[in-house]
Protein backbone atom coordinates (compact mmCIF):
# COMPACT_ATOMS: atom_id res chain seq x y z
CA UNK A 1 0.00 0.00 0.00
CA UNK A 2 2.70 2.51 1.05
CA UNK A 3 4.57 3.87 -1.89
CA UNK A 4 6.27 7.02 -0.71
CA UNK A 5 6.60 8.68 2.70
CA UNK A 6 8.28 12.05 3.10
CA UNK A 7 9.22 12.53 6.78
CA UNK A 8 9.31 15.91 8.54
CA UNK A 9 9.44 16.54 12.26
CA UNK A 10 6.86 18.73 13.98
CA UNK A 11 7.61 20.31 17.33
CA UNK A 12 4.15 21.70 18.08
CA UNK A 13 1.37 19.19 17.75
CA UNK A 14 1.62 15.55 16.97
CA UNK A 15 1.39 15.03 13.26
CA UNK A 16 2.27 12.49 10.65
CA UNK A 17 3.06 12.81 7.01
CA UNK A 18 0.12 11.32 5.13
CA UNK A 19 0.66 8.14 3.21
CA UNK A 20 0.61 8.41 -0.54
CA UNK A 21 -1.33 5.34 -1.66
CA UNK A 22 0.15 3.10 -4.31
CA UNK A 23 -2.98 3.32 -6.43
CA UNK A 24 -3.18 7.01 -7.22
CA UNK A 25 -6.73 8.11 -7.98
CA UNK A 26 -7.82 11.46 -9.32
CA UNK A 27 -10.46 13.20 -7.18
CA UNK A 28 -14.02 12.87 -8.41
CA UNK A 29 -15.67 15.21 -5.92
CA UNK A 30 -17.44 12.57 -3.87
CA UNK A 31 -15.20 11.48 -1.01
CA UNK A 32 -16.85 9.90 2.04
CA UNK A 33 -15.37 9.27 5.48
CA UNK A 34 -16.02 6.28 7.77
CA UNK A 35 -19.37 7.77 8.80
CA UNK A 36 -20.32 8.48 5.16
CA UNK A 37 -19.75 12.21 5.63
CA UNK A 38 -18.66 14.13 2.50
CA UNK A 39 -15.87 16.74 2.46
CA UNK A 40 -17.51 20.09 1.73
CA UNK A 41 -16.05 22.83 3.89
CA UNK A 42 -12.39 23.83 4.24
CA UNK A 43 -11.25 26.31 6.88
CA UNK A 44 -7.82 27.73 6.26
CA UNK A 45 -5.88 29.43 9.05
CA UNK A 46 -3.61 32.04 7.45
CA UNK A 47 -1.84 33.14 10.63
CA UNK A 48 -1.57 31.94 14.22
CA UNK A 49 -1.12 35.53 15.45
CA UNK A 50 -3.81 37.85 16.74
CA UNK A 51 -4.04 41.39 18.06
CA UNK A 52 -6.75 40.35 20.57
CA UNK A 53 -6.41 38.15 23.60
CA UNK A 54 -9.96 36.82 24.05
CA UNK A 55 -9.79 34.77 27.22
CA UNK A 56 -11.70 31.86 25.66
CA UNK A 57 -9.21 31.56 22.80
CA UNK A 58 -5.79 33.13 23.48
CA UNK A 59 -5.62 33.97 27.18
CA UNK A 60 -2.96 36.57 27.91
CA UNK A 61 -1.35 34.47 30.59
CA UNK A 62 -0.36 31.89 27.94
CA UNK A 63 -0.10 34.01 24.81
CA UNK A 64 2.28 36.56 26.31
CA UNK A 65 5.21 38.32 24.56
CA UNK A 66 7.36 35.23 25.04
CA UNK A 67 4.94 32.94 23.20
CA UNK A 68 6.59 31.10 20.34
CA UNK A 69 4.42 31.96 17.32
CA UNK A 70 5.30 30.35 14.01
CA UNK A 71 8.16 31.90 12.04
CA UNK A 72 7.24 33.21 8.62
CA UNK A 73 9.10 30.39 6.85
CA UNK A 74 6.78 27.84 8.49
CA UNK A 75 3.63 29.40 7.07
CA UNK A 76 2.17 28.08 3.87
CA UNK A 77 2.73 30.60 1.08
CA UNK A 78 -0.24 31.86 -0.92
CA UNK A 79 0.89 29.59 -3.79
CA UNK A 80 0.91 26.59 -1.47
CA UNK A 81 -2.48 27.43 0.02
CA UNK A 82 -4.01 27.88 -3.41
CA UNK A 83 -2.53 24.63 -4.69
CA UNK A 84 -3.94 22.67 -1.77
CA UNK A 85 -7.27 24.48 -1.94
CA UNK A 86 -7.58 23.51 -5.59
CA UNK A 87 -7.11 19.84 -4.68
CA UNK A 88 -9.66 20.07 -1.88
CA UNK A 89 -12.15 21.66 -4.26
CA UNK A 90 -11.57 18.80 -6.70
CA UNK A 91 -12.46 16.46 -3.82
CA UNK A 92 -15.83 18.17 -3.27
CA UNK A 93 -15.12 21.23 -1.10
CA UNK A 94 -17.42 24.05 -2.14
CA UNK A 95 -16.98 26.40 0.78
CA UNK A 96 -13.69 27.96 1.93
CA UNK A 97 -13.37 30.08 5.05
CA UNK A 98 -10.20 32.06 5.76
CA UNK A 99 -9.55 32.34 9.45
CA UNK A 100 -6.79 32.34 12.04
CA UNK A 101 -5.59 33.91 14.44
CA UNK A 102 -6.65 37.18 12.95
CA UNK A 103 -6.61 36.68 9.17
CA UNK A 104 -6.45 40.39 8.37
CA UNK A 105 -3.00 40.49 10.00
CA UNK A 106 -1.63 38.40 7.13
CA UNK A 107 0.01 40.79 4.65
CA UNK A 108 -1.50 40.91 1.17
CA UNK A 109 -4.47 38.73 2.11
CA UNK A 110 -6.49 40.22 -0.74
CA UNK A 111 -4.06 38.54 -3.17
CA UNK A 112 -4.90 35.16 -1.65
CA UNK A 113 -8.61 35.98 -1.81
CA UNK A 114 -8.21 36.79 -5.49
CA UNK A 115 -6.50 33.45 -6.22
CA UNK A 116 -9.11 31.47 -4.28
CA UNK A 117 -11.98 33.32 -5.92
CA UNK A 118 -10.83 31.89 -9.26
CA UNK A 119 -11.23 28.26 -8.16
CA UNK A 120 -14.10 26.31 -9.68
CA UNK A 121 -15.87 23.21 -8.39
CA UNK A 122 -16.11 20.10 -10.62
CA UNK A 123 -19.57 21.44 -11.59
CA UNK A 124 -17.98 24.71 -12.73
CA UNK A 125 -19.28 26.85 -9.85
CA UNK A 126 -17.24 29.48 -7.98
CA UNK A 127 -16.35 28.41 -4.46
CA UNK A 128 -18.34 30.01 -1.64
CA UNK A 129 -15.52 32.12 -0.20
CA UNK A 130 -15.75 33.78 3.18
CA UNK A 131 -13.62 35.03 6.05
CA UNK A 132 -13.95 35.26 9.83
CA UNK A 133 -12.41 38.33 11.46
CA UNK A 134 -12.42 40.31 14.68
CA UNK A 135 -12.96 43.34 12.39
CA UNK A 136 -10.29 45.44 14.08
CA UNK A 137 -8.73 46.17 10.66
CA UNK A 138 -11.85 45.75 8.57
CA UNK A 139 -12.78 49.40 8.11
CA UNK A 140 -9.51 49.80 6.17
CA UNK A 141 -9.62 46.50 4.29
CA UNK A 142 -13.25 45.70 3.46
CA UNK A 143 -13.31 47.30 0.00
CA UNK A 144 -10.02 45.73 -1.14
CA UNK A 145 -11.26 42.31 0.00
CA UNK A 146 -14.51 42.75 -1.88
CA UNK A 147 -12.65 43.93 -4.98
CA UNK A 148 -10.43 40.85 -4.75
CA UNK A 149 -13.48 38.57 -4.89
CA UNK A 150 -14.53 37.98 -1.28
CA UNK A 151 -18.30 37.42 -1.21
CA UNK A 152 -19.30 37.49 2.42
CA UNK A 153 -17.86 37.84 5.87
CA UNK A 154 -18.33 36.75 9.48
CA UNK A 155 -17.42 39.18 12.23
CA UNK A 156 -16.86 38.28 15.85
CA UNK A 157 -18.37 40.62 18.42
CA UNK A 158 -19.04 39.51 21.98
CA UNK A 159 -20.70 42.60 23.45
CA UNK A 160 -22.02 46.04 22.60
CA UNK A 161 -21.14 47.46 25.97
CA UNK A 162 -17.73 49.03 25.48
CA UNK A 163 -16.35 48.07 28.90
CA UNK A 164 -17.45 44.44 28.56
CA UNK A 165 -16.03 44.22 25.04
CA UNK A 166 -12.70 45.77 26.03
CA UNK A 167 -12.43 43.28 28.88
CA UNK A 168 -13.25 40.32 26.67
CA UNK A 169 -10.72 41.13 23.95
CA UNK A 170 -8.28 41.97 26.77
CA UNK A 171 -6.49 44.52 24.58
CA UNK A 172 -8.73 47.44 25.51
CA UNK A 173 -10.02 47.51 21.92
CA UNK A 174 -13.14 49.71 21.58
CA UNK A 175 -16.43 48.34 20.26
CA UNK A 176 -16.92 51.43 18.07
CA UNK A 177 -14.08 50.31 15.77
CA UNK A 178 -15.73 46.91 15.22
CA UNK A 179 -19.03 48.62 14.42
CA UNK A 180 -17.17 50.79 11.88
CA UNK A 181 -15.78 47.58 10.37
CA UNK A 182 -19.31 46.17 10.04
CA UNK A 183 -20.47 49.37 8.33
CA UNK A 184 -17.49 49.26 5.94
CA UNK A 185 -18.30 45.63 5.07
CA UNK A 186 -21.91 46.63 4.34
CA UNK A 187 -20.81 49.55 2.18
CA UNK A 188 -18.41 47.32 0.26
CA UNK A 189 -21.24 44.89 -0.51
CA UNK A 190 -19.93 41.97 1.53
CA UNK A 191 -23.06 40.08 2.38
CA UNK A 192 -24.82 38.51 4.03
CA UNK A 193 -22.83 39.62 7.07
CA UNK A 194 -22.88 37.27 10.03
CA UNK A 195 -21.90 38.40 13.52
CA UNK A 196 -20.72 35.72 15.95
CA UNK A 197 -21.08 36.25 19.67
CA UNK A 198 -19.44 33.70 21.98
CA UNK A 199 -21.55 33.63 25.14
CA UNK A 200 -19.85 33.01 28.47
CA UNK A 201 -22.22 32.76 31.40
CA UNK A 202 -21.42 35.45 33.97
CA UNK A 203 -19.19 37.37 31.55
CA UNK A 204 -21.35 38.58 28.67
CA UNK A 205 -24.66 36.71 28.81
CA UNK A 206 -26.34 39.95 29.90
CA UNK A 207 -25.37 41.31 26.47
CA UNK A 208 -27.54 38.79 24.57
CA UNK A 209 -30.63 41.00 24.52
CA UNK A 210 -28.81 44.28 23.72
CA UNK A 211 -27.03 42.50 20.84
CA UNK A 212 -30.32 41.05 19.58
CA UNK A 213 -31.99 44.46 19.80
CA UNK A 214 -29.10 46.16 17.97
CA UNK A 215 -29.07 43.78 15.00
CA UNK A 216 -32.84 43.30 14.65
CA UNK A 217 -34.16 44.94 11.51
CA UNK A 218 -30.70 44.98 9.91
CA UNK A 219 -29.36 42.64 7.28
CA UNK A 220 -26.86 41.23 9.76
CA UNK A 221 -27.51 37.65 10.95
CA UNK A 222 -26.46 37.43 14.59
CA UNK A 223 -25.32 34.03 15.82
CA UNK A 224 -24.85 33.06 19.43
CA UNK A 225 -22.16 30.47 20.08
CA UNK A 226 -21.86 28.24 23.11
CA UNK A 227 -18.48 28.64 24.78
CA UNK A 228 -16.48 25.57 23.76
CA UNK A 229 -13.82 23.48 25.45
CA UNK A 230 -11.52 23.78 22.48
CA UNK A 231 -7.74 23.74 23.03
CA UNK A 232 -6.07 23.32 26.39
CA UNK A 233 -5.43 26.86 27.58
CA UNK A 234 -8.75 28.62 28.17
CA UNK A 235 -9.60 27.04 31.53
CA UNK A 236 -13.02 25.98 30.20
CA UNK A 237 -15.68 25.06 32.75
CA UNK A 238 -19.13 23.69 32.02
CA UNK A 239 -20.74 26.14 34.45
CA UNK A 240 -19.63 28.99 32.17
CA UNK A 241 -21.53 27.50 29.22
CA UNK A 242 -24.95 29.00 28.66
CA UNK A 243 -26.94 26.33 26.76
CA UNK A 244 -28.34 27.61 23.47
CA UNK A 245 -31.84 26.56 24.60
CA UNK A 246 -31.56 29.14 27.37
CA UNK A 247 -30.29 31.79 24.95
CA UNK A 248 -33.30 31.17 22.72
CA UNK A 249 -35.69 31.24 25.69
CA UNK A 250 -34.35 34.61 26.80
CA UNK A 251 -34.58 36.14 23.33
CA UNK A 252 -37.98 34.57 22.69
CA UNK A 253 -39.36 36.17 25.88
CA UNK A 254 -38.45 39.62 24.56
CA UNK A 255 -38.86 39.06 20.83
CA UNK A 256 -40.90 35.96 19.91
CA UNK A 257 -39.10 33.53 17.62
CA UNK A 258 -39.91 30.63 15.32
CA UNK A 259 -37.57 27.93 14.07
CA UNK A 260 -36.40 27.86 10.45
CA UNK A 261 -35.23 24.94 8.31
CA UNK A 262 -31.49 24.44 7.86
CA UNK A 263 -30.16 25.79 4.53
CA UNK A 264 -27.71 22.99 4.08
CA UNK A 265 -26.94 19.68 5.72
CA UNK A 266 -23.72 20.17 7.69
CA UNK A 267 -24.72 23.70 8.71
CA UNK A 268 -23.44 24.47 12.20
CA UNK A 269 -26.09 26.99 13.21
CA UNK A 270 -29.73 26.30 14.03
CA UNK A 271 -31.71 29.09 12.42
CA UNK A 272 -34.55 31.10 13.96
CA UNK A 273 -36.51 34.14 12.82
CA UNK A 274 -38.33 36.86 14.66
CA UNK A 275 -42.09 36.39 14.35
CA UNK A 276 -42.52 40.11 13.72
CA UNK A 277 -40.38 39.93 10.57
CA UNK A 278 -37.34 41.66 12.10
CA UNK A 279 -34.87 39.16 10.64
CA UNK A 280 -33.00 35.98 11.43
CA UNK A 281 -30.67 34.76 14.17
CA UNK A 282 -28.78 31.52 14.75
CA UNK A 283 -27.40 29.49 17.62
CA UNK A 284 -24.39 27.21 17.46
CA UNK A 285 -24.84 24.53 20.10
CA UNK A 286 -21.42 22.95 19.93
CA UNK A 287 -21.55 21.78 23.54
CA UNK A 288 -25.17 20.89 24.29
CA UNK A 289 -26.24 19.45 20.94
CA UNK A 290 -23.49 17.64 19.10
CA UNK A 291 -23.63 18.00 15.34
CA UNK A 292 -20.86 15.56 14.36
CA UNK A 293 -23.16 13.39 12.27
CA UNK A 294 -23.18 15.91 9.44
CA UNK A 295 -19.72 17.37 10.02
CA UNK A 296 -18.19 17.93 6.61
CA UNK A 297 -15.43 20.31 7.72
CA UNK A 298 -11.68 19.99 7.37
CA UNK A 299 -9.18 22.49 8.75
CA UNK A 300 -5.83 23.46 7.33
CA UNK A 301 -3.48 24.95 9.91
CA UNK A 302 -1.22 27.92 9.32
CA UNK A 303 1.71 25.60 8.66
CA UNK A 304 -0.17 23.23 6.41
CA UNK A 305 -1.41 20.49 8.69
CA UNK A 306 -4.78 19.01 7.97
CA UNK A 307 -7.03 18.55 11.02
CA UNK A 308 -10.20 16.51 10.77
CA UNK A 309 -11.86 17.80 13.93
CA UNK A 310 -11.76 20.97 16.00
CA UNK A 311 -10.82 18.81 18.98
CA UNK A 312 -8.12 16.77 17.26
CA UNK A 313 -4.79 16.11 18.88
CA UNK A 314 -2.87 15.42 15.72
CA UNK A 315 -2.71 16.65 12.17
CA UNK A 316 -1.67 15.37 8.78
CA UNK A 317 1.34 17.22 7.47
CA UNK A 318 0.45 18.31 3.94
CA UNK A 319 3.28 20.86 3.88
CA UNK A 320 5.76 18.00 4.05
CA UNK A 321 4.23 16.60 0.88
CA UNK A 322 4.22 20.01 -0.84
CA UNK A 323 7.80 20.83 0.08
CA UNK A 324 8.98 17.27 -0.46
CA UNK A 325 8.14 17.49 -4.14
CA UNK A 326 4.97 15.39 -4.31
CA UNK A 327 2.82 15.91 -7.39
CA UNK A 328 -0.84 17.03 -7.42
CA UNK A 329 -2.16 13.53 -7.98
CA UNK A 330 -0.06 12.16 -5.14
CA UNK A 331 -1.19 14.87 -2.73
CA UNK A 332 -4.83 14.54 -3.79
CA UNK A 333 -4.66 10.77 -3.30
CA UNK A 334 -3.10 11.22 0.14
CA UNK A 335 -5.84 13.69 1.15
CA UNK A 336 -8.45 11.27 -0.16
CA UNK A 337 -7.09 8.45 1.95
CA UNK A 338 -6.94 10.60 5.10
CA UNK A 339 -10.57 11.63 4.66
CA UNK A 340 -11.71 8.08 3.91
CA UNK A 341 -10.18 6.95 7.20
CA UNK A 342 -11.76 9.78 9.24
CA UNK A 343 -14.01 8.73 12.10
CA UNK A 344 -13.84 11.86 14.33
CA UNK A 345 -16.94 12.75 16.34
CA UNK A 346 -15.60 14.38 19.45
CA UNK A 347 -18.71 16.32 20.51
CA UNK A 348 -20.90 13.25 20.25
CA UNK A 349 -18.48 11.24 22.36
CA UNK A 350 -18.30 13.98 24.96
CA UNK A 351 -22.10 14.17 25.07
CA UNK A 352 -22.08 10.42 25.70
CA UNK A 353 -19.68 10.97 28.61
CA UNK A 354 -16.53 9.79 26.85
CA UNK A 355 -14.20 12.68 26.22
CA UNK A 356 -10.88 11.05 26.98
CA UNK A 357 -10.43 10.10 23.35
CA UNK A 358 -8.82 13.43 22.53
CA UNK A 359 -6.92 14.19 25.69
CA UNK A 360 -9.56 16.39 27.35
CA UNK A 361 -8.58 14.98 30.73
CA UNK A 362 -5.04 16.26 30.27
CA UNK A 363 -3.58 12.76 30.10
CA UNK A 364 -3.41 12.31 26.35
CA UNK A 365 -1.61 14.25 23.65
CA UNK A 366 -2.04 18.02 23.54
CA UNK A 367 -5.20 19.28 21.88
CA UNK A 368 -4.85 21.74 19.07
CA UNK A 369 -5.60 25.43 19.82
CA UNK A 370 -8.31 27.37 18.02
CA UNK A 371 -6.06 30.24 16.89
CA UNK A 372 -3.81 27.69 15.16
CA UNK A 373 -6.43 25.82 13.13
CA UNK A 374 -9.07 28.51 13.00
CA UNK A 375 -12.70 28.47 14.14
N1 LIG B 1 -9.79 36.15 14.90
C1 LIG B 1 -10.93 35.88 14.12
C2 LIG B 1 -12.19 36.11 14.91
O1 LIG B 1 -12.14 36.17 16.13
O2 LIG B 1 -13.23 36.23 14.26
C3 LIG B 1 -10.96 34.51 13.49
C4 LIG B 1 -10.44 33.36 14.29
S1 LIG B 1 -11.41 32.93 15.71
C5 LIG B 1 -10.51 31.56 16.36
C6 LIG B 1 -12.85 32.20 14.96
C7 LIG B 1 -14.09 32.12 15.80
O3 LIG B 1 -13.86 31.21 16.86
C8 LIG B 1 -14.51 33.43 16.45
O4 LIG B 1 -15.84 33.71 16.09
C9 LIG B 1 -14.38 33.14 17.91
O5 LIG B 1 -15.29 33.86 18.65
C10 LIG B 1 -14.58 31.65 17.98
N2 LIG B 1 -14.02 31.03 19.19
C11 LIG B 1 -12.75 31.08 19.63
N3 LIG B 1 -12.61 30.39 20.79
C12 LIG B 1 -13.84 29.89 21.08
C13 LIG B 1 -14.36 29.09 22.15
N4 LIG B 1 -13.60 28.65 23.15
N5 LIG B 1 -15.67 28.77 22.10
C14 LIG B 1 -16.47 29.19 21.09
N6 LIG B 1 -16.04 29.93 20.06
C15 LIG B 1 -14.74 30.30 20.06
FE1 LIG C 1 -8.04 36.48 18.26
FE2 LIG C 1 -10.25 35.58 17.18
FE3 LIG C 1 -9.04 34.18 19.09
FE4 LIG C 1 -10.20 36.46 19.74
S1 LIG C 1 -11.22 34.63 18.95
S2 LIG C 1 -8.14 35.82 20.36
S3 LIG C 1 -9.91 37.67 17.93
S4 LIG C 1 -8.24 34.57 17.10
FE1 LIG D 1 -17.00 18.11 13.56
FE2 LIG D 1 -15.29 17.44 15.47
FE3 LIG D 1 -17.02 19.43 15.88
FE4 LIG D 1 -17.89 16.88 15.76
S1 LIG D 1 -16.55 17.76 17.31
S2 LIG D 1 -18.82 18.67 14.75
S3 LIG D 1 -16.48 16.03 14.22
S4 LIG D 1 -15.35 19.41 14.38
Structure, explained:
Helix content is 27%, strand content 17%. The protein has 375 residues and is α/β, with parallel strands linked by helices. The chain has a single domain (6-373), classed as Alpha-Beta Barrel (TIM Barrel). The protein starts with a strand and ends with a helix. Mean pLDDT is 92; it is low at 1-11 and 356-362. Bound molecules: S-adenosylmethionine and iron/sulfur cluster (SF4) (2 copies). Residues 50, 52-54, 57-58, 100-102, 134, 156, 371 line the site of one iron/sulfur cluster.
* Helix and strand run: EEEEHEHEHEHHEHEHEEEEEEHHHH
User: Which sheet architecture does the biggest sheet show?
Assistant: 13 strands, mixed
Q: Assign the CATH class.
A: Alpha Beta
CATH superfamily: Aldolase class I
Count structural domains.
1
Structural class: alpha/beta
End-to-end CA span: 34 Å
CATH topology-level fold name: TIM Barrel
Query: What's the Cα radius of gyration?
Result: 20 Å
